[in-house]
Write a structure and sequence with these properties.
With about 450 residues, the protein is an alpha+beta fold. The protein folds into 3 domains: about 15-155, Roll (PH-domain like), CATH 2.30.29; about 165-225; about 250-425, no CATH class. It contains 10 helices and 19 strands. The strands form 4 sheets. It has a 7-stranded antiparallel sheet, sandwiched between helices. The chain has a 6-stranded antiparallel sheet with strand order 13-12-11-16-15-14. Strand 9 (about 235-240) and strand 10 form a beta hairpin. Helix 6 (about 175-190) packs antiparallel against helix 7 (about 195-225).
Length: about 450
Amino acid sequence: MTPDPGQWHRLHPLSPLVRSGRAAIGVLAIVGISASGQFGRDGSHLYDWAVAVLVVIAAVVSWLVTRWKLDGSTLRIETGLLRRDSRQLPVARIQAVDVVRPFLARALGLAELRVRLAGSSHADGRLAYLPEQAALDLRARLLAAHHGLDPATPEPGERILAAVPTGRLIGSVLASGASLLIALLIAELVVMRESPAVFTATGSTFLIFLVTLVPMVWRRLATDYGFTLAQSPDGIRIRRGLLGTVAETIPLRRVQAVRMVEPMLWRPLGWCRLEIDVAGSPGRDHADGSGRMRKTLLPVGYREPAWQLMRLVIGADPPPLSRPPRRARRKAPLSYHFLASGHDAATAMGVTGRLRKVTTWVPLEKVQSIRMVTGPVQRILSLATVHVDAAGRRVRAEFRDRPGQEAGPLVEELAAACRSARRRAPEAGLRPAPSIPLQGSLPDPAEAADPALTDPAS
């Protein structure tokens, strides 16, 4: 249970073991390999062991100098030995509270609590580690105080939107490019064994590729295992993980764009992947520990429920789309059949791709800049591309290969629509999103796009 508020508390006594476990195990593994189970006669391996001991001591010192308390409407966290760091986190500004359980912490019944404040791109407060139930209780207490509820009030319920079956996740990983490349490498190694000279010359290179690719495939399975997406009053909640688990909340107001990715091998099965771009800059304190801005909203799912999830997150209907003129096929013969784009008063959408189809949907209130780019081939064909950029790295919807006479007015039209959207946007709180059932069919806007524009030069 959560300790009594208003008093200083330490983290769990096993926290140093979890914090130093990964680093210490890595150091000890290096020691074991270098020593081959034996100490050098000159005692040189003692230095390696000393590094492991120092890692453990540093974790213990960090535990001794760290304390926290919930002081009324403020969560206070103090840490640091030589340089004292005292943080006061106002409950009213809490944006999200995530619970992270790495493998070792999960085995010991511990969890890490990460608190993000409004306007911040990383975890402003971290409590690593607390007993799992205490972390869940403290999270519920913080969220209740944030919403002005009695701490004894049960946490508001959530509605499950999507869950990824294990079989579908495994199938999606097997149908990925990395898995196919692994299969080809293994087949090539089997064939090369018939020719020892060739195997000796190139076998090591193939093994290096295998050692690189296999962890990538395993990481995808371990990260997205048990993926569950839910809707709650404070945003969308994601739970996932096999060995270590993550439970994170993403407020809808922080979503800058939504992307639907349809790899070539998935399209016959009707599968796609949803990704969201979240405001902020990458950092080590992100809830998934990856430091990436782009987060997975749905690892693999069918297109119709995926469209409804996109609609739920954006809080609007897809805009009408139109395709580029037929002369754009001369510039992009492989991707022309995917190209489509459009906008309305609230959002902009662009569809691109060659081997994989990518649909990017951006709320106009989040747009940071609008650019018109014309390449040498586009100038010959009287075409131009308009980029609608949101906050983040490579986050944009592209109006690709539009007629030149249309691109200039389109930039002005989009700029005016963005200004109007920002004026309509609420000053605070979550963007209201429709509560829709994940049943039925929502048509693909790209498939319903207007026919190719009439173009005498085409």
